[in-house]
Amino acid sequence: MFLVDDLLVKPFLSLLDILHTMALDEMYDTDAIQDDIKENRLLYEIGERSEEEYQQRKQELETQLEIAQQIQEQMRGRMEVKQ
After folding, report:
1. Helical spans, DSSP H, in the chain
2. Angle formed at CA 78 by CA 77 and CA 81, multiple of 5 degrees
3. Distance CA 66, CA 39 (A)
4. Cβ 61 vs Cβ 29: under 8 Å
5. Separation between Cα atoms, residue 77 and residue 69, nearest integer Å
6. 73 or 78: whose pLDDT is higher?
7. Are 27 and 72 in contact (CB under 8 A)?
8. pTM for the predicted model, two decimal places
9. What was the pLDDT predicted at 26?
């Protein structure tokens, strides 16, 4: 039974773990959120967004960035433990 686990189950679980990590990396991409923050500021500066829209979007993006950074930190800790 252990041979079956080693040959069939463990590679499958490793693949799922890799896919899960990749999905989290894409969902919580801090660089993309920082780009959105810059874009929001640029749209405000050229007059495409009102100050109210700018402030609201800025708050949303900063919250997303905070969450993404926390998730990234948790993922780094998890990766260190596995290796």
Report:
1. 2-4, 10-27, 30-45, 51-82
2. 90
3. 18
4. no
5. 12
6. 73
7. no
8. 0.67
9. 77
Rounded to 5°, angle at Cα 75 from 21 and 40: 85
Tokens (6 digits) for 50: 């009102």
- Using one digit for the tens of pLDDT, what is the confidence trace for 25-57? 778 889 999 999 999 999 999 999 999 999 999
- Rounded to whole angstroms, how far apart are CA atoms 57 and 80? 34
Structure token pair of residue 6: 């080693």
The conformation of residue 38, written as its DSSP 8-state character, comes to: H
Structure tokens at 62: 């900063």
Q: Is the pLDDT at 80 greater than 70, yes or no? A: no
Q: Which amino acid is at 51?
A: E
